[in-house]
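Why Helix-turn-helix domain-containing protein? Reviewers of the renewal asked for a concrete example.
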Amino acid sequence: MASSGDISEVKFLTIAEVASTMRVSKMTVYRLVHNGELPAVRVGRSFRVTEKDVNDYLQRSFFDAG
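Here is what the prediction returned.
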């Protein structure tokens, strides 16, 4: 979240936007959310993921293949 605690500064993404950003299917993103690997907020019947959480997940997922 924003360092000042102001939620209005946080950018929320839909599952489809996260899938597009990560170049994976929406089902993969839903699986990450339901497994607790990717934090999400439930809004009605849909989920929203913060852009920061997506970036953090991708940073944690990098590994050295060399």
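The CA atoms of residues 12 and 50 lie 4 Å apart. This is the kind of structural detail the renewal will allow us to pursue systematically.
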